[in-house]
Amino acid sequence: MNEVKYDLEKRSKAYKSIGLRMIVAVYICYLAFKIASAEDTSMSKTMCWIIGGVFMAAAIAFIIYSRKRFLIDLDSAKIKEDHAADDETVEAEATEEDDSSESSEAESETV
Q: Which backbone phi and psi does 78 adopt, to 5 degrees?
């Protein structure tokens, strides 16, 4: 009964986006590991660890951002049926008000 319905296009886009973002995050983690574990480099081992740590922090921040963005995109993909009925009612009332104001203006012009 409380089944959530989604706009399939928006939901599909949300899943594709999170998939691509996770691939990027995994690649950043891979780069962090490779930089931190570099054996044959002219940089000092400490500098490699620092740069690797910065990359790892960036990957974690990107994962957190990606998750939040996914939840926002998924929430926007939900079809809200209750609001659709309310919107139609509001539009119908606005149309009735416009019609009544136009007829009032026409009557005042004829007088």
A: -65, 140
Handedness of CA 43, 48, 54, 56 (dihedral sign): positive
Q: What is the pLDDT of residue 28?
A: 96
**Residues in contact with 70: Cβ distance below 8 Å, sequence separation at least 6, in sequence order:** 14, 17, 18, 21
In the chain, where are the structural domains located?
Answer: 8-79
Q: Give per-residue pLDDT as tens, 27-85.
A: 999 999 999 998 888 888 999 999 999 999 999 999 999 999 999 999 998 988 765 55
Collapsing DSSP to helix, strand or coil, 6 comes out as strand
Rounded to whole angstroms, the Cα distance separating 18 from 24 reads 10
CA dist., res. 42 & res. 105, Å (int): 85
**Residue 78: strand, helix, or coil:** strand
Look up residue 43 and give its amino acid: M
